[in-house]
Each structure stands twice: as structure tokens, then as C-alpha cells.
Amino acid sequence: MGLSSVSFAVETPTTTGGHQTVGVRDTTEPDGNTLTHLGGRDHQGLDIVCSDGSEVIAPFDVTLHGKLTVYSDTRKAAINSGINLRGAGLCFKLFYVNPDRTSGSVRKGERIGTMLPMQSVYPEITSHVHVQMCDRSDPTGYF
What we know:
This protein is an all-beta fold. Helix content is 0%, strand content 36%. It contains no helices and twelve strands. It has a six-stranded antiparallel β-sheet, with no helix packed on it.
């Protein structure tokens, strides 16, 4: 069973005890191309805006398929973590997340982990969780 739309949640507590709404980080280039070239590579995924330290919540029932390494550059160690997930007929990866665990199942609405401190490595960009499909297809249509 596939999905026509996924509601992804990153929860950021506010001072009033509520949660801040998050959105998709705009990576559209002036020519309308949605793949941004970063350091000589294509941006193949979708960025969900959130604050460093935010809880990352399962968008639907998923199974966890191991931790992933985002970078080989040791200068980016603070954000060099993520998780492989499968659920609802999709296989995808979340970058810049410190997972609470790396195997088993997580139900929709349960915590997967926390957003890593992106600002400590990239203070010039908006903090975000990067979502990438396992087959590197464009995930935009699911969000």
C-alpha cells in the first residue's frame, strides 16, 4: 500500500507548552530546478525545517533499519547521524537525526529521535531534517 501524502512531524516545544509548526525548506533554484547543487553534488531529497534539538516524530508506522552515516568528513561529526526507515510502502532515510534506537518498530506519532545541532556545523543555513528516498527519487510528492 503506497501513500499519496505523508504528514511528517518534527515537534519543537514552545514556551507556551504547544508545538511550533514546521515546514519544508525551499531549495528551489532561480531557474525552477528543485535540485540544489551543494558542494558539487545534487540535493536529492526534501528538507523539513525544524530547530536543533527538536523531537523527530514518526509520520506513520515505520520499521527502523539501522543507523546511517551522513558524512565522511570528521569536521561534521556533530551532525553525522541518521536512520534508515521503511513504512507504508516507502523506503527512506532521515539525515541529521540522533535516533533513539536503530531497529524495531515505531508507531505513528511516536518519537524516532532528536534533531542534531546543525547550527554548530552550518550556522549559515536553516536547520532541517533531510528526507531522502532509498532509490533517490524525489520525495516531494509524498509531503
